[in-house]
């Protein structure tokens, strides 16, 4: 046995949340207000393995989901990579994601769209 003691820095604590683990490389697509990404990041204590993305550009997103601003700020503090304008239909050709691999890809509640129902209406989000 080695005579060197492990320090807390040497030990990577793996945190689990449902199907996900902090050691996994996780890609989130179709985020709205980024609350789900932030939830994962908070549970893990770090988002350095998380790439969180939205279809909307930053400007559009801020108008639709004003809380996304504070959520994204906290995500970035937790070392999350945040990308906008990522469309699941062509993300295999998306230069920011190409040649990268992930253990999990999460698309929660994809919204197909309905007449008179918009995804940023509070009761739809709730
Ligand atoms: C009902 S919202 C769910 C938002 C978020 N995933 C959640 O769980 O709160 C549906 C989301 O799907 C996104 N979306 C729709 N079509 C998409 C596409 N082709 N690529 C990526 N995201 C898409 C919309 O921008 C919207 O944020």
From TrEMBL:
Protein name: 25S rRNA (uridine-N(3))-methyltransferase BMT5-like domain-containing protein
Alphabetical GO biological process terms: rRNA base methylation
GO cellular component, one term: cytoplasm
Annotated organism of origin: Acorus calamus
PANTHER family in UniProt: 25S RRNA (URIDINE-N(3))-METHYLTRANSFERASE BMT5-LIKE DOMAIN-CONTAINING PROTEIN, PHENYLALANYL-TRNA SYNTHETASE
A Pfam family: BMT5-like
Molecular functions (GO terms): rRNA (uridine-N3-)-methyltransferase activity
Residue ranges of every copy of the 25S rRNA (uridine-N(3))-methyltransferase BMT5-like domain listed in the record: 27-116
């Amino acid at each position: 046995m080695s005579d060197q003691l492990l320090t807390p820095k040497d030990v990577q604590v793996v945190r689990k949340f449902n199907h996900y683990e902090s050691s996994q490389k996780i890609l989130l697509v179709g985020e709205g207000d980024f609350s789900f990404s932030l939830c994962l990041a908070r549970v893990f204590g770090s988002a350095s393995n998380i790439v969180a993305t939205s279809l909307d550009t930053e400007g559009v997103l801020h108008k639709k989901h004003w809380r996304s601003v504070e959520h994204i700020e906290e995500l970035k503090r937790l070392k999350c990579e945040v990308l906008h304008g990522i469309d699941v239909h062509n993300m295999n050709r998306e230069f920011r994601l190409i040649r990268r691999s992930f253990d999990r890809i999460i698309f929660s509640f994809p919204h197909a769209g309905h007449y008179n129902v918009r995804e940023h209406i509070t009761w739809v989000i709730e």
